[in-house]
Amino acid sequence: MDRDERFYRKWTAIRKKGKAKFVISRGLVHGLLLYVVWAAATWFFDRDKFDPEFFVTRYYYYFLIYLIVGFIISSGAWKGQNKRYDNITWYAEKQRKKNLP
Questions:
Q1: In angstroms, rounded to a whole number, what is the distance separating the alpha carbons of residues 75 and 78?
Q2: Which residues cross the membrane (predicted)?
Q3: Max CA-CA distance within the chain?
Q4: String of b and e for 70-89 (b: at least 16 CB within 10 Å)?
């Protein structure tokens, strides 16, 4: 089984579940991953530079920002994967028509 065929089967199953579920689940994962990396780096390098109240408020704001960024990334991933799926489908249809007498 080649790479495109594996992708086609996997994306068909994901596509059936819907865009909303994909964007929400992947958006949360991407957003939380970005947030954890940022929070760890900030805590490690900047914890002595700011007072604790500012630091906690900053964490809340950036949590929301990174979740939104995660949703944007996932929405873009949906579009890209859907485009690849459509291209594979189009190419398969083209080959099928070409092989017919």
A1: 5
A2: 20-39, 59-78
A3: 77
A4: bbebbeeebeebeeebeeee
Q: Which two tokens stand for residue 99?
A: 């092989």
Kindly state the tokens that stand for 57. Answer: 């408020």
Per-residue pLDDT of the chain (101 residues; tens, 9 = 90+): 688 889 999 999 999 999 999 999 999 999 999 999 988 888 888 777 777 777 778 888 999 999 999 999 999 999 999 999 999 999 888 887 765 45
Task: Give the pair of three-digit tokens for residue 44.
Answer: 């490690």
Measure the CA–CA gap between 92 and 29, rounded to whole angstroms.
33
